[in-house]
Design a protein that fits this description.
alpha/beta, Metallo-beta-lactamase, Chain A, Rossmann fold, 3 domains, 8-stranded mixed β-sheet, 7-stranded mixed β-sheet, 35% helix
């Protein structure tokens, strides 16, 4: 009875973990890596044809995007998901296959191959996507199901995405039972539309995400609405557009919820009839799934809105763009407007066209409302790159770049700890995954040193014996990108994490008394001066 760590270990994307019990091999997620890779990921411990089941925590591509490839390579088992996840996977995997095929076609047209060179092949095809979609079997929340001999499971609403779940897995071998809980992506509390995450009471081993394990979010969703109103007012007054790169499933629907509230309450009376374009066929399809979903997926406020006969994510002035011609027409429209488009990290899809038309405009604003993985175009923009390359062309970044702090589908540090503390008894071990390298280290340290958990952040390639509770193989991790002077030390990773927490503190200090702000600034300047001097002295000594 073993647990294998395959993907999203010291990384955020590409989630994949494998459980071996008796003769059965079970994957928990099989996601695609997005953005730059920090560490090499090991292959699956067995051939795809030997995998019996895949249990999906939710439909996002970084948790499901390699399923068509698994099918292509011989997987013939079932994919287990909640009902809403099954619907969204149908939509998202077909879209992913379309992107793979279009990219292959584009490369083969644009790149001149040497004589005899093989053409670029897509990672998988639409046939592969449709094949694995047929393997998806929907299950309900809150019921324990027998999966196969020696394995039971239960889905619990984790509040991250429509249909998202944590997975409780009871595995028995030679009369010995162990219970594993895979958190999936733990949702943020007090977010619109979806329920808050539900807690689990017991586990022997917990495998939990840590995406925002080094920072705190703002708690009041009204703050997001107020900030968005100010962004719209300032940008429209300048005559510019507000461009929102948003994940087609989840973030897009939340933004529509907020904009409906702005229009319904007339919070922007200067521009009451502003247009909002959702330019993503997948986002349009996902919005339909949200609209038609069972009401039990939604929080009390959303259910109340539905009971009043109002669609919580629709309003006057909303335009849904499906065709390429529809998309092109948006940028020919000179009126100030909101453009919501995928992908949320700006690495693919129609959003790149809208960025090309707006990044160089001083009157426009680009608003980021979700996580930006390292190496993505979105990450470069949020980190202040003055010039980026889009479709082979250098584009100057002259527009305003804004991040709505705390507006995330992921729990923050406090939310993650609250979820873990809800277990009535401390698990034997907590495995920290699905976070940037330094975040997994700092968060596991926090759990161990401040809260008394036996917590660890394993690397891809690690293998754990679930019966004895010991490591079979504790991988060290092979870094793909190395810093000058070798790999970063754990101490330096912690310092970087603290730096990000400091940025969050500064961002939240608006409104403090000026004397407090001045004192805060003086103390920071003194620290900066101190360590600059110390560093210079060390360099001189060398």
């Amino acid at each position: 009875m073993e647990l294998f760590f395959v993907g999203a270990d010291h990384e955020v994307t590409g989630s994949c973990h494998c459980v071996h019990v008796g003769e059965k091999w079970i994957l928990i997620d099989y996601g695609m890596e997005q953005g730059g890779d920090a560490y090499e990921n090991v292959p699956l411990p067995v051939k795809p044809s030997q995998i019996d089941y895949v249990i999906v925590t939710h439909a996002h591509i970084d948790h499901t995007g390699m399923l068509p490839k698994l099918y292509h390579d011989g997987f013939a088992g079932n994919v287990i998901a909640t009902g809403a996840s099954a619907q969204l996977c149908d939509l998202m995997l077909r879209d992913a296959a379309h992107i793979q095929m279009m990219e292959a076609e584009w490369r083969n047209k644009k790149e001149k191959r040497k004589s005899g060179e093989e053409p670029y092949e897509p990672l998988y095809t639409m046939e592969d996507a449709m094949g694995v979609i047929k393997k998806i079997v929907p299950y309900a929340y809150d019921r324990i199901y027998d999966l196969c001999e020696g394995v039971r499971f239960r889905f619990t609403d984790i509040g991250h995405l429509l249909g998202s779940a944590s997975v409780e897995l009871w595995v028995t071998e030679n009369g010995v039972e162990r219970k594993l809980v895979f958190s999936g992506d733990i949702g943020n509390v007090n977010q619109p539309i979806l329920n808050d995450p539900k807690y689990t009471s017991e586990a022997d081993y917990v495998i939990m995400e840590s995406t925002y394990g080094d920072r705190l979010h703002e708690k009041n969703h009204a703050n997001y609405v107020e900030e968005l109103v100010e962004i719209l007012r300032e940008t429209f007054t300048r005559g510019g557009n507000v461009v929102i790169p948003a994940f087609a499933v989840g973030r897009t629907q939340v933004m529509l919820y907020f904009i409906r509230e702005i229009k319904q309450k007339n919070l922007l009376p200067e521009f009451p009839d502003f247009q909002v374009f959702v330019d993503s066929p997948m986002a349009v399809g996902a919005t339909e799934i949200f609209t038609e979903a069972d009401r039990s997926y939604f929080d009390d406020e959303t259910r109340a809105i539905l009971d009043s006969g109002v669609n919580p994510i629709s309003f006057k002035g909303l335009e849904l763009s499906i065709s390429t011609d529809d998309s092109k027409a948006i940028n020919m429209n000179e009126n100030p407007k909101v453009i919501i488009s995928a992908s949320g990290m700006c690495d693919a899809g129609r959003i790149k066209h809208h960025l090309k038309y707006n990044l160089w405009r001083k009157d426009s604003t680009v608003v980021f409302v979700g996580y930006q993985a390292e190496g993505t175009l979105g990450r470069k923009l949020t980190e202040g790159e003055p010039k980026v390359k889009i479709f082979g062309e250098d584009i100057s970044v002259l527009c305003r770049i804004v991040q709505l702090q705390g507006m995330s589908g992921h729990a923050d540090k406090d939310g993650l700890i609250s979820w873990l503390k809800a277990f009535e008894k401390k698990p034997q071990k907590v495995f920290v995954v699905h976070g940037d390298d330094e975040v997994t280290v700092s968060f596991s340290d926090c759990l161990r040193e401040e809260h008394g958990y036996d917590a660890q952040a394993p690397y891809s390639g690690s293998e754990f014996d679930l019966i004895s509770g010991t490591w079979i193989n504790e991988a060290q991790g092979i870094a793909i990108k190395k810093q000058e002077g070798g790999r970063e030390s754990d101490a330096f990773k912690k310092l970087k994490s603290t730096g990000r927490a400091l940025e969050e503190t500064i961002a939240g200090s608006r409104g403090m008394a000026n004397k407090d702000l001045d004192r805060f600034n003086e103390e920071l300047q003194a620290l900066i001066a101190k360590y600059k001097i110390d560093t210079a002295s060390e360099e001189t000594a060398k």
